[in-house]
């Protein structure tokens, strides 16, 4: 029988809408899109795409760990950018978190993201 478990942690920013940080369904974890908010203060990191991207990954890592997963378990990543000119910088930082067995992914530019941030990333993880 399949189970659906809601995952939330105070080590990542609270949801800014009617959703949870993640949902675990059987062995698959679906992590909601993360933007560069600092969990403790809910303040936005807006000091450049590099800092913003690292904050997003910090948030993702906190949620993954809360559910018992790690970056090595991520099978799919979705990256949303406000400007495709940031692609190279984001890619460089992305490679620091996914060092082996990189997940499938897409990266798209969108008109606007929540709170007018420059980046949002969601991931799907799976563990045997």
Mean pLDDT: 96
Helix and strand string, N-terminal first?
Answer: EEEHEHEE
Give the termini separation.
Answer: 16 Å
CATH superfamily: RutC-like
CATH secondary-structure class? Alpha Beta
| Overall strand count | 6
State the low-pLDDT regions, or none: none
How would you describe what is shown here?
The chain is α+β, with helices and mostly antiparallel strands and 128 residues long. 23% of the residues lie in helices and 29% in strands. The protein has 2 helices and 6 strands, in the order βββαβαββ. It has a 6-stranded mixed β-sheet, covered by helices on one side.
Short recap of the structure:
The chain is α+β, with helices and mostly antiparallel strands. It is 23% helix and 29% strand. It has one domain: RutC-like (60s Ribosomal Protein L30, Chain: A, 2-Layer Sandwich).
Attribute tags:
128 residues, alpha+beta, 60s Ribosomal Protein L30, Chain: A, 29% strand, deaminase activity, RutC-like_sf, 2-iminobutanoate/2-iminopropanoate deaminase
Write the layout of secondary structure elements.
Blueprint: E1 4-7, E2 22-25, E3 28-34, H1 49-66, E4 74-81, H2 87-97, E5 104-109, E6 119-126
Parallel strand pairs: 4-5
Antiparallel strand pairs: 1-2, 2-3, 3-6, 4-6
């Amino acid at each position: 029988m399949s189970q659906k478990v809601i995952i939330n942690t105070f080590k990542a920013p609270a949801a800014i809408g009617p959703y949870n940080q993640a949902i675990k369904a059987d062995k698959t974890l679906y992590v909601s899109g993360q933007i560069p908010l600092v969990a403790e203060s809910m303040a936005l990191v807006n000091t450049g795409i590099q800092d913003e991207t690292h904050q997003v990954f910090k948030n993702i890592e906190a949620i993954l760990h809360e559910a018992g997963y790690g970056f090595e378990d991520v099978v799919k990543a979705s990256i949303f950018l406000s400007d495709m000119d940031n692609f190279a910088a984001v890619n460089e930082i992305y490679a620091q978190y996914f060092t082996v067995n990189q997940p499938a992914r897409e990266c798209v530019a969108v008109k606007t993201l929540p709170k007018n941030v420059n980046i949002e990333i969601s991931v799907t993880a799976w563990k045997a």
